[in-house]
Amino acid sequence: MPIDPEALNSSIAGLAELSAAGKGLEPALEQVIGETARMFAVDGAGLMLLTQGDVLRYVVASDEGGRVLETIQQQVGEGPCLDAFEREEPVVAADVGHDPRWPSFGRVVKGHRLVGVLGVPVELESGTVGTLNVYSREPHDWDDGEVEAIQAFGRIVASVLRTAVSAHLRGQLAEQLQYALDHRVVIEQAKGMLMEREGLDQHEAFELLRQQARSNRERVIALARRVVAGEPLERPTSTP
User: What are the φ and ψ backbone dihedral angles of 132, each rounded to 5 degrees?
Assistant: First the structure.
């Protein structure tokens, strides 16, 4: 899916002034997601944000397929978009139905013609609050240009969310965003404590949190809260 650089720049420029304060948070996000699907010539796009219960939840999608893609990951607790959030980096899958990284997700998604998936983290100052995701109905090897381009759209989503926070918008979606922000503050505090205590860099500190959480079958946020409260964290002997 080659991306025309001129068309990409034009699309980004057209969305640059989009503000949740002026248009409303959900309509503004719907516009960005719709433009993402159009610009990438993919079969669909969607946005997930962290919500209460410490799970990523579907917020906006360009079509039913995008909604299903995100809802299945929410239900089975695994998938490329969830990994993009936890790892705070892009995650690509040429064919999720045959990808050993997500066996449960792969089994369920096969019947929905959701095949190639690319997810990138949506980051605000306090950390990652969600993911922007695109999918294709055929196997697709995502190249670096596509990853970089969707990251640019992820920054537009972050800008829209930022204006919503600044404008103190109210509503269910705004409350979900605030929850995500509060969540990330705790994780960033835990990472900072591990960096100082263990001599780790930022990525290593998060990996230690992630590995220990998976080993304990708990969510990263729950473990982060205990670390902030002063509980020692042992290094896992092996990666789960």
Answer: -105, 130
Are residues 45 and 158 both part of a single domain? yes
Per-residue pLDDT of 183-219, as tens digits, reads 778 888 898 899 998 888 887 888 888 788 878 878 7
Structural domain count of the chain: 2
| One domain for residues 186 and 156 | no
Same domain, yes or no: 14 and 133: yes
**pLDDT digit string, tens, across residues 118-148:** 999 998 876 788 999 999 999 999 999 999 9
- Predicted TM-score of the model (pTM): 0.77
Q: What residue numbers bound the domain in which 214 lies?
A: 172-228
Is residue 239 in some structural domain? Answer: no
